[in-house]
Write a structure and sequence with these properties.
This protein is an alpha+beta fold. It has helices at residues 48-61, 87-106, 131-144, and strands at 2-8, 11-20, 23-30, 36-41, 73-80, 110-118, 121-128, 152-155, 163-166. The longest helix is centred in the middle third of the chain and has 20 residues, at 87-106.
């Protein structure tokens, strides 16, 4: 998969492409919106990386580029647990990971890095391009799936104190 971005004024555009089996999927739009998608066949003898590179060439010429490491923001979705949690909590974490993967991916805003369960809390780790848009789209999706209750969403950068973005006036946050 290849993800490219371009800032135009205050608007961040995304373009991404991937090959799965015998098809190339190209997905593009404005970060935070589902955008458009085009799917086309890929001949079996073609190198998938070359197909993606050829599709990306015009975008690179227009100024699209892969994000710099400091352009992505580490975001954590956290839920409190009783003790070490239960099998239901484990299933919930995986449901949140899948939902966040879909939401962030299809809005061009990032990806899920994984999750963990610790005594007292479970975390889903994400990398996002725009944290404010991520909070909006994630909270809408989590609410739609009855997964929002108890969630706290925070920016968690190395060597900085976590900064809670949602909900407002949330208590202390630790990873």
């Amino acid at each position: 998969m290849l993800k490219l971005y371009k800032k135009e004024g205050d608007t961040l555009h995304y373009w991404e492409a991937w090959v799965h089996e015998d098809t190339l999927t190209v997905h593009w739009g404005v970060v935070g919106e589902q955008g458009e998608e085009k799917v086309q066949p890929v001949p079996a003898d073609e190198d998938p990386d070359m197909v993606i590179a050829q599709a990306a060439e015009p975008l690179v010429d227009q100024g699209y580029d892969e994000p710099e490491p400091d352009a992505v923001t580490p975001l954590v979705i956290q839920y409190p647990l009783q003790g070490k949690g239960t099998g239901h909590d484990f299933e919930k974490r995986h449901a949140v990971e899948e939902l966040a993967t879909d939401v962030l991916g299809w809005t061009g805003n990032g990806e899920v890095e994984g999750g963990e369960t610790q005594p007292g809390r479970m975390n889903v780790f994400c990398w996002v391009m725009d944290p404010d848009i991520a909070v909006r789209t994630l909270t809408e999706a989590l609410e739609g799936e009855d997964l929002l209750e108890g969630a706290v969403i925070a920016i968690v950068r190395e060597d900085e104190a976590p900064r809670v973005l949602w909900p407002q006036n949330s208590g202390p946050f630790r990873v």
